[in-house]
Amino acid sequence: MYQSIITEIDDGIGILTMNRSERHNALDRTLVAEMTDALRELDADPRVRVVVLSSTGRSFCAGTDPAWVRETIHNTPEENLQDNRNIARLLATLSGLDKPTIARVQGSAHGIGVGLIAACDIVFATYDASFALNEVKYGLLPAVACPYLLAAIGERHCRYFMLTAELFSGTEAYRIGLVHEMVPGEEQ
Description:
- The protein is of the alpha/beta class.
- The protein is 40% helix and 21% strand.
- It has helices at 29-44, 66-72, 77-95, 112-118, 146-164, 170-176, and strands spanning 5-10, 13-18, 50-55, 101-105, 108-110, 122-126, 130-132, 168-169, 181-183.
- Helix 1 (29-44) packs parallel to helix 3 (77-95).
- It is globular.
């Protein structure tokens, strides 16, 4: 049983739902570990033909949880490196599944949340979705997600959004190739 995610299999579709809506589905150590484990389980399950990544609440994923970031201040460099390796392992697992992956995005996706989207094969986003690679505001670059972002949107767009931290719309995400289809949200 998982603490931060919900998994289900429905007629060949494996659904992994981030379930930390009170934290806008921001990644913490537990969520990263649970998602990685669940993705491996769904990939190994012969009943699953496709994997859908979704989330509860108003936000797809607000990036890295600030509470987790505050905890890491007291970590050793080796502990921080391991946390980053675990996030990299999550993205590599998602990107490397033997089954197609679909991201179902609503609301905001920031930081590593955009990396999760870029690691998926197909992306559907609601018309009100918004995106930001905002790590530069904290003196960082989204290095772990960079290979997936480069593959999804190309070097020029990647560089622009990484260096400006500009919030961009679902329409812009569609235009640059991060999103494949725009769909109405529940409120439309």
